[in-house]
Automatic annotation (TrEMBL):
Pathways per UniProt: Glycan biosynthesis; glycogen metabolism
Family in the record: Belongs to the phosphorylase b kinase regulatory chain family.
Family annotation (InterPro entries): PHK_A/B_su
Signal peptide: none
Function: Phosphorylase b kinase catalyzes the phosphorylation of serine in certain substrates, including troponin I.
Name of protein: Phosphorylase b kinase regulatory subunit
Subcellular location: Cell membrane
Classification of source organism: Eukaryota, Metazoa, Ecdysozoa, Nematoda, Chromadorea
GO molecular function: calmodulin binding
Amino acid sequence: MLPLLQVFESLGKNEKMGLGGRPPRPFGPLNTSKIFKRFGDTILCYPLLFELKDFYISADPAVLIDEIKLNLEFMSKRWKLSGRPTFCMVLREENVSGEYFSHMLDLLIALKNGYVNGVRVRVGRVHVSVCFWENRVFESGKEGQGKHLICV
């Protein structure tokens, strides 16, 4: 199975026109707010700020909490698609224990109460009817090779 990033690299790729496709860079907050379907599987993406090996923010719980709030605010101002954006959080033990426990608890309470820094949020299960679903079909493979469609 191809990682979602590799699948998206095929977007805009056209060897005849000399187009290399989407650069292999991580998704921003708006793309990670979509729910993807690929071969019948549901794919939820979490924002880069939760990535441990490539990004440093999750190592500092105070900065992580501020970045979560900023991401929610950014999405509330920039989301233009139908359906609601989905924000997936990764809670690790080190972020919900120790000296920052009360700060993370305040954030979780704000999420549960429905407002984070003035942004209306809703915590719950993923529902098909209220989320934005990204369904795409990509053609994969080079010319002359067996091509197959990749549905996302």
